[in-house]
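For the sake of transparency, this paper describes our internal protein records without simplification. The tokens are whole numbers drawn from a learned vocabulary of local backbone shapes. One such record is reproduced below, unchanged from the form in which we store it.

. . .
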Amino acid sequence: MNSVSVITLVHGRKQHLGNLIIGLHQSDILPQELVIIHMNEESTYPLPATSFPQYRYQVNSTDTKIPLAAARNEGVNQAQHNFLVFLDVDCIPSPTLIGNYLKAKQQFDGLIMGEIRYLPKGALPARWQTSELAQWGVPHPNRPSISSAVEPTERYELFWSLNFAITRQNFEKIGGFDTQYQGYGAEDTDLAFTARQRNIPFALGSATCYHQHHPVYQPPLQHFQDIVVNARRFYEKWQTWPMEGWLQKFTERKLIQWEARGSTIEILREPNSDEIQAAYHEAPAGF
């Protein structure tokens, strides 16, 4: 069956969520539903109208950490259909995204990650059509190019949760996202590694979305504690380090004691507010 549930999570990105919904409404093939999980925020503000149903749910954490893993799992629990497409709230689907995922599903039974193009700052006008986005979106320089609906690969470390699809059966075989990861970082790589461990194949695909611009922190010092705690959790499970680039940046700033070939991280100090502000970057290219 070609029934598709699209799942997205949101915290503080009302306009980006609205654009995602508008993009879905312009899809060549519409989803059967959109499942929206609001994390640590109110969920009553108005959304664009669509010809497919939208369902909104709430997942809160007991602290300020965003419950990404738990919210994605709840999205699956609430979804009514077997084929699940996860879109980050920053992503606008191309008109062919759902159709390309359905083509990939016919060829491949596993975890499928679509392509992400980045919209540079100021590229998205007030009024736009998804058919126009291809002229503005640029590829990430560190990601492979994709030319077909499905390209199997053993490089599970490439998996990002911004744009992916999976059947409910395979998601349940993986066991969902590990909710012991709290806040930002590593829960998506963990999902991919668990898929590999449980013999679920992985593929890249041409189901394209367009990532809406927002400023970033380079490195993400605002998530310092989350990244360190989640990196430890990941190492305990897999005996390898995730997010090595960020951990190296933290080491260079003498925030942590860490070596890529070691087995421990020691926090030396917290980044101060000036350091966090200095890491703020407008990211004109979108990444």
